[in-house]
Design brief:
Strand content: 15-25%
Largest sheet: 4 strands, mixed
Shape: elongated
Order of helices and strands: HHHHHHEEHEEEEEEEEEEEHEEHHEEEEE
Number of helices: 10
Radius of gyration: 28 Å
Strand order of the largest sheet: 2-9-8-5
């Protein structure tokens, strides 16, 4: 599905900047790397900007628009950004490629023909889409908000597009981090200076939150493991029914929602032994976000969430220690079958709760939370796990309720009462010594704990 807000510039998924530090510009040994001093249009720039430009040039992220001109005040075009994106990601580029999959990009186009290998490499990696299925509009400018969105996603931030205009949250977050182009509205075109300054700031912000580098002994194989079959929780309207602690925004955020799955990365050494490692995912991209949304947390773990039925490819860039980045792919299938509880277990099948005398009426009472007292764990039909209060918070999907049976009291007196509120609060009043507490899901799966009351 194409956006009418021209967000197709870049798939709104995480663009990681951890690779900045490892990127180098490959040149013959005799060639000297240019600096800001080599470009005539940078002569009047301040020292701080020149320092940023020098680092970006040295890292191979930027180069001049000619041998003597950097093009500092020019707008950044989609064709130029395609090249920058491939360098940021260290994506392999076939420089011999001279045929584009887009009808408006031609090798004989003096302005943009050179970008064909970069556009195709970025498209293949799932980074950049066309404005339509067949056109790319290589000369169109990148807006400040589109720039903000990419940099924020690269920092593992969640960007909401529900406001009007769509870029309100992106601009707010980017401004707070000091990476939004100064004094520019979100819909204004970003210049090459804006991209240098903003990328430089994002790089520093990422390095500040970057986890410690861990170099496993003899790593030899990195792969994606697990079943990535998910429910259509957004398109079906399920997330719209979220209430209480879990808002619709949370339920639809891949990095926060319990409906999402973490994309598991397996690392083995040369002996085939699995090696434990912290988050190593640098970026994650969904080829079709309308089917499956993806997100990247600040500790470099990737998550995927089902939107509407279909199958799509999700690509990841992972990096272990100081090794080279590797691109992995996983097929994600989103199904129309509703989310339901498949298994329900109780960590506590024998519960003891105290009863206390209430002030004024001399009646023994007890109140406790059924979810935590039973230590419930539910697993849905897509393999997602919910524990204790997660079950209550996602009850709009799981439909769990509690019933009581076999309520007993001391002999010689009327047995008291036991009730359970919709939120799982168990209320006991009067002569009750024990009862059975059963959790039942909407799918009919149940588990029972035996409760003993003490005085």
């Amino acid at each position: 599905m194409k956006s009418n807000k021209k967000l197709t510039l870049i798939s709104t998924t995480a663009m990681a900047f951890s690779l900045f530090a490892s990127l180098t510009l490959v040149q013959p040994a005799s060639a000297a790397v240019k600096t800001s001093a080599d470009f005539t249009d940078l002569a009047g720039s301040n020292a701080a900007l020149k320092t940023k430009i020098d680092r970006m040039i040295a890292d191979g992220i930027f180069e001049g628009v000619s041998g003597t001109t950097f093009g500092i005040s020019q707008n950044m075009t989609r064709a130029q950004f395609a090249k920058v994106a491939t360098k940021i990601y260290n994506i392999p580029v076939d420089l011999t490629l001279n045929v584009s999959s887009f009808t408006d990009v031609h090798a004989d186009d003096a302005a943009n023909g050179w970008a064909i290998p970069y556009i195709e490499a970025a498209k293949k990696a799932g980074l950049i889409d066309g404005v339509t299925d067949t056109t790319f509009q290589p000369g169109e400018s990148v807006t400040a908000a589109q720039l903000d969105t990419v940099l924020l996603k690269g920092l593992g931030k969640t960007v909401s597009m529900a406001s009007s205009p769509w870029y309100t949250d992106a601009v707010k977050q980017a401004t707070a981090l000091g990476i939004h182009p100064t004094s520019k509205a979100g819909d204004q075109a970003a210049t090459r200076e804006d991209l240098v300054v903003s990328s430089y700031g994002a790089q520093d912000a990422f390095n500040a939150q970057k986890p410690p580098v861990v170099t496993p002994s003899n790593p030899s194989n990195v792969s994606v493991v697990g079943d990535y079959r998910l429910g259509s929780v957004i398109d079906s309207g399920l997330t719209s029914s979220a209430t209480g602690t879990i808002t619709k925004t949370i339920a639809e955020d891949p990095t926060l929602s319990k409906f999402a799955k973490e994309i598991k990365i397996k690392l083995t050494n040369s002996a085939g032994e699995e090696i434990a490692t912290p988050g190593i995912v640098q970026s994650v991209v969904s080829l079709d976000p309308s089917i499956a949304k993806v997100g990247l947390t600040s500790d470099h773990r990737a998550y995927v969430l089902g939107n509407k039925p279909g199958t799509t490819d999700v690509s990841l860039i992972v990096q272990v220690g100081n090794g080279e980045a590797k691109q992995l792919h996983v097929s994600v299938t989103v199904e129309s079958t509703s989310v339901s509880v498949k298994t329900l277990t109780a960590g506590e099948t024998s519960i003891t709760e105290p009863m206390t005398m209430s002030v004024g009426d001399n009646v023994y009472k007890a109140n406790f939370d059924a979810y935590t007292a039973m230590d419930l764990t539910a697993t849905d039909n897509y393999g997602n796990k919910y524990e204790d209060l997660d079950i209550r918070n996602y009850n709009f999907a799981l439909g769990t309720l509690f019933i009581t049976n076999d309520v007993r009291g001391e002999a010689g007196s009327t047995v008291g009462s036991v009730s359970v509120d919709p939120d799982g609060t168990v209320k006991v009043t009067g002569n009750v010594t024990s009862f059975e507490l059963t959790a039942v899901s909407a799918s009919g799966v149940k588990v029972t704990s035996y409760v003993t009351l003490t005085r």
